[in-house]
Amino acid sequence: MRRVPTAVLLAALLAIGGKAAAQASAVEAGELVGSVMDGATRQPLPSASVAVYAERDSALVGGTLTGAGGRFRVPGLRPGRYSVTITYIGYRQRTIPAVMIAAADPRTDLGAVALTMEAVAVEGISVTAERSAVTMQVDRTVYDADKLPSSSGGNVSDALQNVPAVEVDADGNVSLHGNQDVTIQINGRPTPLTGQALADFLKQLPASLVQRIEVVPNPSAKYDPEGTGGIINLVLKKDADLGLSGGIDVGAATRGRYNASGRLGYQRGRLSLFGNYGVHGDKRDNGGRSWRENLFDDPITYLDQQTTGARDNTGHVLHLNGDYHLGERDVLSASAMGRISTGTRRNAVHDRMLDAAQELTGRFEQDNRTDTDRLGTDLTLSYEHTFAPETHKLSAEVRYEYDRDADDRRFLRQPLTVAGEPGADPEDLELNGTSENSFETTLKLDYTRAIGEAWKLDAGYKGRLLRLDSDYAVDLFEGGVQVPDERDNAFRYDRDVHAIYATLGRQLGAIGLQAGLRLEDAITTFDLRTTGETYHDDYAELYPSASALWKVSESQQLRFSYSKRVHRPGAWSLNPFPSTDDPLNREAGNPYLRPEHTHAFQLELQQYVPFGSVQISPFYRRTTDVIRSVTTLDPATGISTSTPQNLATSTAYGTDLTASFRLGETLRGFASGSAYRRRTDGDNVGAGLSSDAVTWSLRGSVNWTVREGTELSWFSMYRAPRKVEQGRIAGLSMSNFSVRQRLWNDRTSLTLRVSDPFDTMRWQSWIATEEYTQVSQRDADARAVYVSFRWSFGQKPQFRDRDGGERTSGPEESQPGS
Known about the structure:
Largest sheet: 22 strands, antiparallel, barrel
Number of strands: 48
Number of helices: 4
Structural class: mainly beta
Mean pLDDT: 82
């Protein structure tokens, strides 16, 4: 264990007076320059301590802290021999002896100095290499996916459940601090998927393909402002090296679930190629029950609905990437991602109608089937020119995305007698289908330049051109005879967004500052071809951002961030024609829906302690034109319809508390809790649409290395009940347990994982309006036993940096895309 020298604390103070002293000296003073980086990832290390000692008497004669790009400059050094000591918390201290400052050439460049992670002691505090698992940067927190518990053998949704402040509900929807409007990125590029399509994709993507999960609660103006909840960036592994490398992961589970993936990388000279493929199959039962009290009837009547069924989903994901170095400073890159998924869901629904005395008055039996077919492609071509390594770059990118969604639904409704026999009335049959094609082209230009030793400028342009064509057709039969239905519709949705941005960063000793501004011009057209109506919504908006990271001490850092965010309504949220997943429950859009805007503030304090680290993160968000789904009931038909509306305002504030621990070399884990209050004012739309709720959640995990190569993991989470507009949602809990055995020098591992062993994953909600009240419960069928096998081959990865250097691990795409 090494102790960081107390003299290093004086280094920054000496740097302040160094310039003036050098200028006043009668002898021409020299200077020492260079940069400090992580030896594994080749990423710069800001705020690293650089101390310069005279070799003749070991006196401290100068020092500084590295800037935002990891660079440093120590001026005011007389000609002579020096030793340089560089320290950074969580890394092995490095001393460079016999550094010469010559009178003839007084400027000495140490180049890029690489540091290696290691446990160190700081003023009596033992700090392990915590940064290797969780790292706080100026605008994001980075989690090492391989060190998240209980994700081995699972999918990305399983891995996200282990990230503090991130929640995944029974349908696979991801939220951050309770906000589901989160932008999911893959290698820094926003995925075009939303809603259930995105949830299915995350379940299809094996967790073994993810290297890091980056959580950006308040992204800077450099990045798209969409997603009021922030950004979650999934950085995929890129296992290319000097030669051939790769690996395979194969897993199977009870109830017919399976997953498999393979990755292959090759690098030789200027060329790097990488590809991975994953397949995922998920079969599970789905059932539930709802109890509705019809207040519009006098006397009151009731509807008891019970559902049993099953679903079967299969998905394939293919990702290809290639880099070619045209020279020492130019890189041409191309990537392609393709995804295909199919699914079938069948439900048997039993409806029982009851009178005020809850005596049975009628029955219906309903057979529902939905078939889904989704295809997506994502093609990207990019070019980067490096004027100066790590400090001056220009990049350009063009991206094309195509998605096709097709859903076919069949609802057969049969009236029954009270005794359960087929009734005299004929059965009703509804066939409806959706065909949707989405095309999006993105053009992007980014420029980065370091200004002096402490300033950094980022500026650029981004244009997104989206077109979506949709057709929805309904065939309705009553007693075998087709009857007219007015729900058929077709529309085209166009949205062009052009943006320019600039951010400026500054390193002031131990404090890193960043501020930015983004101007966006949005042009939106919704063309409802069925009726010939066209709706326009064009607007320009400014999106400011600010952040600061203060390294209070070697064991404590504080981060503040602010950004303005936007949630733009999607095409289906604007379509006024109702769509049907259930004959008694429909959804319809609102063509007059406006985008909602959020001002988000967050403060994060991270403290390293003898057993690990503690992080507390209070936050505050204020949103205007809040988009919420409002449900109404038609008394004549008994059909409920949910429509999005703009509520006036919403405020949310709370805090997250996370403690990670490591006891020796065998036991590690984390525990986190979140609590927040959300107040929504919906009186502008109608009575009963305002809410005021406090909710909280807990999660924790433990990893125990029983012996070398054998590891046990346990993860549990609980989310308390919470109020929402028009009702409330019940609490939710789940656990995971796994055993992993590493073999053959860690090139092979075998994992046994039990998901939801206590079968507690259930979804329950209450709705209360003036027309009706309803209680609904749905089972997730998450309990299963998984067995997975992982094998890797090849040399230790050796990546080539964009500026021509090499690095030993980690892909280049580590920053969320703008």
